[in-house]
Write a structure and sequence with these properties.
single chain; alpha/beta; six-stranded mixed beta sheet; three-stranded antiparallel beta sheet; 9 helices; globular
Length: 261
């Protein structure tokens, strides 16, 4: 099976900084896989997600390679990958109606008429379980709760049927119950839409339930990567063991029932 995404010796240094934010990252994703990236704040996990999505600021020094073997060309945002951020406000324009924001991606990338794109937007709002979706098309972001705004942001991210969904701390700004709902939604959509998932999180318990593999980052470096349950139960690196000991007792932690509907 051809890899969807391959990173080879990727390093990145932000403008006006001497210390690199990413150091020699090499990893790959195959179609249909769910990979979680975990690490402390400042470890480089969100920087990695933004580098993959080509969202680094102007003047950033990048070396190494980001390639998309399954496409045989550079990936196109919106079409090949969609991205969901921690703050739904980063995805949603406060002055545009929801239908415009979700439908715009479908219209631009799929070549639809506006009426067709609005139908796609309505279907997506139903899919992400927004109450009264017909009315929601005409509403504005401030009229929804944080969890509902994140659902709408997810709908916009997948409007053009991307192969890869990048979720950058997409649950961490929400309360515990809403986190579980959004995690279940992401899991369900990735399965039903046959997407690949790159899930950035500091929540080790959630990563262990959601991902096939987990990668651990520290100070911009990839410390360890492996099957989720193996990494959690038998970590190879001292740093991963430190994370597990310091951040969460997986045996005592409340489990999120991701299999629930």
């Amino acid at each position: 099976m051809s890899e969807l995404l391959r990173l080879t010796n990727l390093s990145l240094t932000y403008p006006r900084q001497t210390a690199p934010a990413l150091v020699d990252i090499t990893l790959s994703l195959v179609p249909g896989e769910k990979l979680a990236i975990i690490g402390e704040s400042g470890s480089g996990k969100s920087t990695l997600a933004r580098a993959i999505a080509d969202l680094q600021p102007s003047g950033t020094q990048v070396s190494g390679e980001i390639s998309w073997p399954a496409f045989g060309r550079p990936a196109q945002p919106g079409v090949d990958y969609g991205m969901v951020f921690q703050d739904p406000g980063s995805n949603l324009n406060p002055v545009l109606r929801i239908g415009e924001q979700v439908g715009e991606a479908a219209q631009r990338h799929l070549g639809l008429t506006w009426r067709q794109a609005e139908d796609v937007a309505l279907d997506l709002l139903k899919k992400v379980q927004i109450p009264q979706p017909e009315a929601a098309l005409r509403a504005y972001p401030h009229q929804f709760s944080g969890g509902q705004r994140q659902r709408i942001a997810i709908a916009a991210a997948i409007a053009a049927n991307p192969r890869l969904l990048i979720a950058d701390e997409a649950t961490s700004a929400l309360d515990t119950l809403v986190q579980a709902e959004i995690a279940r939604l992401i899991q369900s959509l990735v399965t039903s839409e046959k997407m690949t998932l790159l899930f950035i999180t500091h929540d080790i318990a959630l990563a262990s339930q959601l991902a096939d593999r987990i990668a651990v980052m520290h100070q911009g470096k990839l410390v360890e990567i492996g099957p989720a349950q193996t990494l959690i139960t038998a970590p190879a690196s001292a740093y991963t063991r430190h994370l597990l000991d310091t951040y969460i007792d997986l045996d005592a932690a409340p489990r999120i029932a991701l299999g629930a509907s």
